[in-house]
Amino acid sequence: MHKVNLYLLLNEVSSIIMEIKNWTVKKVLEMGAEMELQGYNLYMEHAEQSEYPGASRLLKKLAADEKRHREHFLKGLDNPDSIEVRTLDENVPDLKVTDKLVNVPLDPKANFPQILKFAAQREKTTYDFYIQVAKKFEGTEWGKMFRTFAMEELNHKKMLEEEYDDITGW
User: Fold this and answer.
1) What is the pLDDT of residue 53?
2) Are 127 and 154 in contact (CB under 8 A)?
3) Which residues have a Cβ under 8 Å from the Cβ of 132 and sit 6 or more positions away?
4) Which of 1, 44, 103, 104, by CA, is between 20 and 30 Å from 139?
5) What is the pLDDT of residues 56-86, one digit of tens each?
6) 152, 134 Cβ separation under 8 angstroms
7) CB-facing half-sphere around the CA of 97: CA atoms within 13 A
8) In whole angstroms, how large is the CA radius of gyration of the chain?
9) Phi and psi for 98 in degrees, rounded to 5?
10) Is the alpha carbon torsion for 13, 65, 50, 2 positive or negative?
11) Which whole-number Å values give the CA distances from 165 to 97, 117, 137, 169, in the listed order?
12) Minimal CA–CA distance to 111: which of 119, 123, 102?
């Protein structure tokens, strides 16, 4: 599988997105599976380290979603005909709370607001990736599926930004 560094992904998403036009479904599924695994690992690591029960619950919920996304992609890699398109309400608002904040690598000793900011920016990058992939496969079942995943990532961003706003009063 193609390895993706989370910080690299946040800072160089435009170059990755430019490459998408030449990607196959298999390559997108591999990339998606790797991105979701890294998201899962990020959320679980910080959920286990958190001293705040609410933070731990939020991060574990996001980790469970990332795990489910990864399993969906792995199933598609194993048997592309087995992919089922799911639908999701596309009226997820983008709060844009963390969009203008500086992207920095996540320090292992980061506090909860820093984790939320990093995670929200990561979700935005993942959303952008899936939107571009959905456009590439527009008019197909694959395009619908990737648009649904994009909306789920935007919903994750929204949850993280709401929590960030509650904690920091941004």
Assistant:
1) 83
2) yes
3) 17, 20
4) 1
5) 899 999 999 999 999 999 999 999 888 777 6
6) no
7) 25
8) 15
9) -100, 0
10) negative
11) 8, 10, 35, 5
12) 119
Q: What is the DSSP string of 83-150?
A: -------S------SSTTSPP-PPPTT--HHHHHHHHHHHHHHHHHHHHHHHHHTTTSHHHHHHHHHH
Topology given in CATH for the domain delimited by 6-168: Ferritin (1.20.1260)
Q: Is 5 exposed, middle or buried (0-12, 13-18, 19+ CB in 10 A)?
A: exposed
The predicted pLDDT at position 5 comes to 53
CB 16 within 8 A of CB 136: no
In whole angstroms, what is the distance from residue 126 CA to residue 150 CA? 7
Per-residue pLDDT, 21: 78
Dihedral pair phi/psi, residue 147, rounded to 5°: -65, -40
Contact 132, 34 (CB under 8 A): no
What is the full DSSP assignment across 39-86? HHHHHHHHHHH-S-HHHHHHHHHHHHHHHHHHHHHHHHHH-GGG----
Supply φ then ψ for residue 102, to 5 degrees: -65, 135
**Which residue reads 């286990």 in tokens?**
48
Weakly modelled stretches of the chain, pLDDT under 70? 1-18, 86-90, 170
